[in-house]
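Recall that a protein's primary structure is simply its ordered list of amino acids. Everything else, from secondary elements to tertiary packing, is in principle encoded there. The following example makes that idea concrete.
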Amino acid sequence: MKHEKFKVTPLERAWILYDVGNSAFVLMIATLVPIFFNALAEAGGLSSVDYLAYWGYASSVVPVITAVLGPILGTLADTKGFKKPIFMLCLFVGVAGCCAMGLATTWLPFLIIFILAKIGFSGSLVFYDSMLGDVTTPERMDVVSSQGYAWGYIGSCVPFVVCLALVLGSGAIGLSQMTALSVALLITAVWWLGTTLPLLRKYKQINYVEVEQHAIRQSFVRIGHTLKHLHEDKQVFWFLLAFFCYIDGVYTIIDMATENNISSDLAKANASAILNRIFTPVLHPQSCRRPGTAQSPLQTAPPAFRYPHWRCRSAGCPRSRSWCQGTMHPCHRYRTGRSIRRISPLG
């Protein structure tokens, strides 16, 4: 039976475009922004140990604040007339912060602006994800969400390639690398805002609850009720616990990878660290996919394999002396003499 090609509606396309915009900010934060902070920190006299610690503190503060604000924002997202205005507020905080980072001349103001920009970005995602129920139908939701992820990653590379070329070729056009980084942040902010405009024009809240008294307090009451009865569904409980531990490690690697690999000299910045960050979602998309969404048809990474109780016997394989279990094998030469069982991403 021939399947019809899935076509997105104009409103669904507008929702997908926001992922294209905010993903450019994520890619910039994970690659070029640490280089900017590194230069400001060295100019301010911070040692390599101190600036790495401060970057880690800033990266840790954001999820803590977001976790505290999450229940409040979640309640507001469900309340009539609140979703779009507060989404716009979070968006403008993130976009303004992205621009302002390029204007900072010392490391401490830069770090404060960085925290505010990421809080704005994280807050906008609460409302953005909740918009999906207004944008599409339950039957189309998985496909639309997956396309948001896929096109978000692809689209984020467009401004990033321009920004990377600008930074690496800054000398040829008479700009300092710090000035080029500032312009790159401005380009990213404009891209983020521009791709959001269709959603702001077309979106209307359909699903909502009426405004309640003590709405914020009630949000925490509902969370307490959910946690109280969570043990009744053990599968959900273990999934949430495992995902929390797993994703915390993933985000730590994302936030700290470039900082741990860049050189103190901007002209010698470790390009391999930056390229690593670009291609990680392609090579292992499960580490970057939003929870609860179907796998994107554009994700073409090979499946994961499990090697219980086996060693790799390939010459030169980094795991020739260690056990391989539940991970992607590095050399793809399987000399175990045993069959290989393919498992699901959550297997």
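DSSP finds ten helices and two strands in the chain. The first strand starts at residue 305 and ends at 306.
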